[in-house]
Design goal:
The complex is a heterodimer of chains A (590) and B (126). Chain A is of the alpha+beta class and 590 residues long. Chain A is built from 18 helices and 18 strands. Chain A has 2 domains: 129 residues, Penicillin-binding protein 2a (Domain 2), CATH 3.90.1310; 356 residues, 3-Layer(aba) Sandwich (Beta-lactamase). In chain A, the strands form 6 sheets. In chain A, strands 1, 2, 3, 4 and 5 form a 5-stranded mixed beta sheet that branches. In chain A, strands 7-6-18-17-16 form a 5-stranded antiparallel beta sheet, with helices on both faces. Chain A has a two-stranded antiparallel ribbon with strand order 8-13.
Chain lengths: 590, 126
């Protein structure tokens, strides 16, 4: 530094070529000249002040700019939309389940669970005695054993009702603690036990919709609406329970399905259980006969044999077969329940439920076509219904000719009732097969389906099914005004590999009104015993058909199906019958 | 002059601080109220849910059917009793209305209703 010559009046902090002006302090009139070190100090102060001033000016400029931005530019006025604090939503951790009309089927309520830390209980003996008075269902010994154990946490009772909680609180024992726990309740108890299902104590869905929609229910707040109608469900259950008691059956199942959407309106399996206490029920009561049980359905399968033959053009309604002799094949004898003589027309074979006649139709259709047709109706794979309890259908492999004959009248193939009802719905609704569903479909939506038979075959099948009820084996299903059509079925049960004569499954599948079907109703009774009122018959026509009539009579007005008043002789099916039997009679006379 | 400005500034600052404190206190109080209201809403929602469950429990179709049978004597409606409007026969013109047979001392509900209906019709006509 010393090498550089520093001019007088300049601070040596600045390089020589600095262009700063020479400070000169000039007052008014008076001129003060400062020299030397004083001038240097003044100059340093001046520049520092300037720098600081600049920084502050910049900071104020930024604040000012931001203020203008906030007040004038971006949000000059109050916000247009008021945003208030939103009300909290009740979180239960599991959404409700309701029926199609919004009636509560399953809900979660907070309950208190009682626990204690045994190390903190001062007087276990006294606590146990007093707790036993408040909660009599807990035994004193058990409480005492829990309270004297060496653990730091014991559940005394889970899921207390508000009244029980109050009783425990009244004891005033400080070492007893409550833990809030959500618990699943089923206010309609056994009525929808098999479809809704139940959860375990930690709210995990174990069966039914609770299981298949477990994860969806966990996240949701909106209730899940099922297709079931609780009123129809009650009517079906009542009819089944009455019939079961009357004929001493060991079980029963019933279904009502909307043929236009595939929605299941009612689904009942008896015996049933209380989902609030599933542990108390035997495993047999928890078994869902509608979707899990597979049964040989018997003569109701003749619906499909006839539809298949009519659809394939193998027979027409004017054809007929000789049914006087039983068919013998491969060690089997196919005979009729009530033998008829001579030649019967196709409508007669169907309405009198002739096995011999139906087997001959199947023989003409052929094994391959039969298997293909039944697969098309969905009998070769489990139903798509939204339950985890779905039964796998059973059919013979290899499918021999004798199997073709027996399957034509419903023996040798076992399917679930829900599959059967879906297929029957497709037969009567104009030929569209729709998957069975337990979820409510929005009103007015067209549910996609797959065409399985033509409109024309569907119409002919409706006429045939109506004939069964007006003149054939299903006369007891005739609900006045609702034009019920259907088919009876009585299947012998397989007991130890042999068909038992006294253990039967009696069923009836019907649809109404046959002029323009809206609902399919299915009822089946497991091992009913005939009594004096049925002349000891335990067949579908005597046992299941009256139950269907009772159900249809009650649900018809509920579901808004307008009754039809017609002269029986004017019905299409009647005209068909008269024509067909006249022709068949003529052929027989030839 | 400078002293006056200083004191004025101090006073303004004190007033502003007091005002801020008051507002903040008010907001805190309102937030407490809001929290209490939210708690209350949740409690009410829970109570409603419990009541709805009980309502559903008491409305089990089997129970209602039993009550109706015991106290009302109602039965399921039969199809024969449901008729559409065009199935009803026309009333012959020369038959006098049934209400005429009731003595004037005991006016039935229908006869009392008739003036009201005709009055409302007149109003519509106007």
């Amino acid at each position: 530094m010393s090498q550089h010559p520093v001019p007088p009046g300049r601070s040596n902090c600045y390089p020589a070529n600095d262009a700063l002006p020479q400070p000169s302090f000039t007052g008014n009139g008076a001129r003060v000249r400062v020299d030397g070190s004083t001038a240097q100090a003044l100059e340093t102060g001046w520049t520092r002040l300037l720098a600081a001033g600049l920084v502050f000016a910049l900071a104020f400029l930024v604040i000012g700019g931001r203020l203008i931005d906030l007040t004038v530019l971006s949000q000059g006025s109050e916000p247009k939309i008021a945003s208030g604090p939103t009300a909290p939503q009740r979180e239960t951790g599991r959404a409700d389940i309701v029926d199609r009309n919004g009636v509560l089927l399953a809900t979660t309520l907070p309950t208190a669970s009682l626990w204690a830390n045994p190390h903190q209980v001062l007087n276990p003996r006294e606590t146990a005695t007093r707790l036993n008075i408040a909660l009599p269902e807990l035994s004193r010994e058990k409480i005492l054993a829990e309270l004297t154990s060496d653990r730091g946490f014991v559940w005394l009772k889970r899921g207390l009702t508000p009244r029980q909680k109050y009783a425990v609180n009244r004891l005033g024992i400080p070492s007893l603690q409550f833990q809030q726990e959500p618990r699943r309740f089923y206010p309609n108890a056994a009525l929808t036990a098999h479809s809704v299902g139940f959860t375990d104590v930690d709210d995990n869905g174990l069966t039914g919709i609770e299981r298949s929609f477990d994860s969806a229910l966990r996240g949701a707040v909106q209730p899940l609406a099922l297709s079931l109608d609780l009123r129809v469900q009650h009517i079906m259950r009542q009819a089944l329970a009455d019939t079961m008691a009357e004929f001493k059956a060991i079980g029963a199942a019933g279904l009502v399905m909307d043929v236009r959407t595939g929605e299941i309106i009612a689904m009942t399996s008896l015996p049933d259980f209380d989902p609030n206490r599933p542990g108390d029920a035997p495993a047999e009561a928890r078994f869902n006969r509608v979707s899990l049980g597979v049964y040989e359905m018997g003569s109701v399968f003749k619906i499909f044999t006839n539809a298949m033959a009519l659809e394939g053009g193998i027979v027409t309604l004017d054809d007929g077969y000789d049914v006087s002799k039983p068919i013998r094949m491969a060690g089997f004898t196919i005979s009729d329940f009530k033998a008829k003589k001579g030649r019967l027309s196709i409508p007669e074979i169907f309405m009198y439920s002739s096995n011999i006649g139906t087997a001959q139709i199947a023989m003409d259709v052929g094994t391959e076509a039969q298997r293909e047709f039944l697969a098309r109706l969905g009998f070769m794979k489990p139903s798509a219904i939204e339950l985890s309890e779905v039964g796998k259908p059973m059919w013979p492999t290899p499918w021999r000719e004798i199997n073709t004959l027996t399957i034509s009248y419903g023996h040798g193939i076992a399917v679930t009732p829900v599959q059967l009802v879906s297929a029957v719905a497709a037969i009567v609704n104009g030929g569209i097969l729709r998957p069975a569903t337990l979820l409510r479909q929005p009103a007015g939506t067209e549910v996609a389906g797959k065409r399985v038979i033509s409109e024309r075959t569907s119409r002919q099948m409706r006429q045939l099914m109506r004939l069964v009820v007006t003149r054939g084996t299903g006369r007891k299903a005739n609900a006045e005004g609702y034009m019920v059509g259907g088919k009876t079925g009585t299947a012998d049960k397989l007991v130890n590999g042999r068909y038992a004569r006294d253990a039967r499954v009696a069923s009836f599948v019907g649809a109404f009104p046959m002029t323009n079907p809206r609902y399919v109703v299915f009822v089946t009774l497991d091992e009913p015993k005939g009594n004096a009122s049925t002349y000891n018959y335990a067949t579908g026509g005597w046992i299941a058909a009256p139950a269907v009539r009772r159900v249809v009579e009650q649900i018809g007005p509920l579901l808004g199906v307008a009754p039809v008043r017609t002269n029986p002789a004017d019905e299409e099916s009647e005209i068909l019958y008269v024509r067909a039997s006249a022709k068949a009679g003529k052929v027989a006379a030839n | 002059m400078r002293r006056v400005t200083g004191i004025l500034g101090l006073v303004i600052a004190a007033v502003a601080a007091l005002f801020l404190f008051a507002v903040k206190q008010e907001v805190r109080q309102m937030e407490d109220e809001l929290r209490a209201t939210h708690r209350n809403i949740l409690a009410q929602q829970e109570a409603i849910q419990v009541l709805e469950t009980e309502w559903s429990y008491l409305n089990q179709p089997a129970r209602i059917a039993d009550l109706a049978k015991r106290h009302l004597g109602l039965r399921p409606i039969s199809a024969a009793r449901i008729v559409s409007l065009d199935e009803l026969p026309f009333r012959a013109a020369n038959i006098k209305p049934a209400s005429k047979q009731i003595s004037p001392s005991q006016p039935s509900d229908t006869t009392r209703l008739i003036p009201a209906v005709s009055k409302s019709k007149a109003r519509v006509a106007q």
